[in-house]
């Protein structure tokens, strides 16, 4: 496992005008398609293309995953945060080429309307539902293996969790 590299990735904490953060429920994990209190939730994130800078990648990922790039970057986490895949996913997830991901996280202010968020623009859809939550709730959601990352992000980006 330690011979495999980490996949470069970006993540987006998208804050609305009330200071709430967007989370979306993954379609490829248990609980998808069920009641809203089930499933695995995450913030938009995705891989960095060859030669792409992280700022461009995070806006592209927003558009691909939630159908909008009506956002402006308002903050950046100072370090790259990495996580390892569980052992049973090594060689299967992420094309089988990575041990996990190393992520550059951004805080963004959503400048659009809720109707601008569309989960059906990239098929198959990665998410089946989305919602706004208070930032401090983020680590308490079922966020799978990323709980530690979301805990760090919630503490660091708390200054953006206010009405704009």
Automatic annotation (TrEMBL):
Record carries keyword Cell cycle: no
Cofactors named for this entry: Mg(2+); Mn(2+); a divalent metal cation
Motif (Nudix box): 46-67
Functional description taken from the UniProt entry: Accelerates the degradation of transcripts by removing pyrophosphate from the 5'-end of triphosphorylated RNA, leading to a more labile monophosphorylated state that can stimulate subsequent ribonuclease cleavage.
Nudix hydrolase domain span: 5-155
Enzyme class at the top of the EC tree: hydrolase
Name listed for the protein in its UniProt record: RNA pyrophosphohydrolase
A GO molecular-function descriptor: bis(5'-adenosyl)-pentaphosphatase activity
Family, as annotated: Belongs to the Nudix hydrolase family. RppH subfamily.
NCBIfam families: PRK00714.1-3 (NF001936), PRK00714.1-5 (NF001938)
HAMAP family from the UniProt entry: Nudix_RppH
């Amino acid at each position: 496992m330690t011979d495999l590299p980490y996949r470069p990735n970006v993540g987006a904490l998208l804050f609305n005008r009330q200071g709430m953060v967007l989370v979306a429920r993954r379609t490829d994990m248990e609980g998808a398609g069920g009641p809203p209190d089930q499933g695995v939730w995450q913030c938009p994130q995705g891989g960095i293309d060859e030669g792409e800078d992280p700022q461009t990648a995070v806006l592209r990922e927003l558009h691909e995953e939630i159908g909008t790039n009506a956002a402006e970057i308002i903050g950046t986490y100072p370090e790259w945060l990495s996580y390892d895949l569980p052992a049973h996913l090594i060689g299967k997830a992420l094309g089988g080429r990575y041990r996990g991901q190393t992520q550059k996280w951004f805080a963004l202010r959503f400048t659009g309307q809720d109707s601008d968020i569309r989960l059906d623009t990239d098929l198959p859809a990665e998410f089946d539902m989305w919602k706004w939550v208070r930032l401090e709730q983020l680590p308490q959601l079922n966020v799978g293996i990323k709980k530690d990352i979301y805990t760090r992000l919630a503490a660091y980006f708390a200054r953006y969790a206010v009405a704009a």
